[in-house]
Each structure stands twice: as structure tokens, then as C-alpha cells.
């Protein structure tokens, strides 16, 4: 299945190839010199330029079609940092597609049927050579049990969720 953008560009290329300096329409193939030739006509240069554009577009589309959402995060560590605060460290997946962001969800139930909050993180940091992100949550209810999970994402969407370690915490006075 061909994408509409490639068909539009190829149609434009055929128009440029077929136009012969105002003299009307000729064949869709150019037998003249390439764009790099110093003696080529302006039309031949335009044809070469459009051919390069089509080739570049095809490579971009192929890259887009081969991209997929990332795998699960490698690790999700969580620490209670205060009476109503926790800190999560999210580690990017070791393999698979590129990760550009994380999504963290917290719930009062282990099955996440009641998601209390959600946050997207796109700022990165390094954890001794491993890339990831930190998420500080400061407005949790003291004494309430929270379950946390996170997923990695990119322009193609979100990967599967992974539970934090430990899978739940209770913010307290430490």
C-alpha cells in the first residue's frame, strides 16, 4: 500500500518531467543530462531535484513505517521521600525502539481500575551510564497505599506498562 504523500510527490515529478519548456507535454522520462551536469537544461535540473526529493521521502516513509513503540522500561525504582511524597527512577528499555518519554500512573488499587494520577516525563538524566528519568510526586495522601506503573513512549505511541519495585508504597513520616 502506497502512502498519499509519495503518490503526490511522484505525480509532481511526472509533471516536471513531462513539461518541455512551455512547448507542451512530452514523455515522462528524461533522457537528458543529470542534475550534476553543467550543460543540463533547467528542466533537467528540476527533474533531478524532484528525483532526489522522492528518494528522500521514500527513505523517510520507510523509517516511519519501521518505527514502533518502545518496549517496557528496564526498571522502575521507587522511594518514599516524605510524608506525602515519592520519587521514581525510570530506566529506558535496553533494546527495541527509541524512547523519548515516559508515562507514570499511580492508583489506589493493584489492578489500576482506579487511576488516581498520571504524569508524562520527557526530561532525561543519566544513572551511572544508563539513561532514564526521575519523577517526583509531592501531593500524595499520607498513609494511603499507592501502586505505581510506567511505560515508555515515542512518536509512534506508548509501549506496555511495567510495575514499580516495590509495586506499592505508603507515604508516611518515614
TrEMBL record:
One of its GO terms (biological process) is regulation of establishment of bipolar cell polarity. InterPro entries: ANKFN1, FN3_sf, Ig-like_fold. GO terms for cellular component: spindle. This is Fibronectin type-III domain-containing protein. It comes from Anopheles melas. The lineage of its organism: Eukaryota, Metazoa, Ecdysozoa, Arthropoda, Hexapoda.
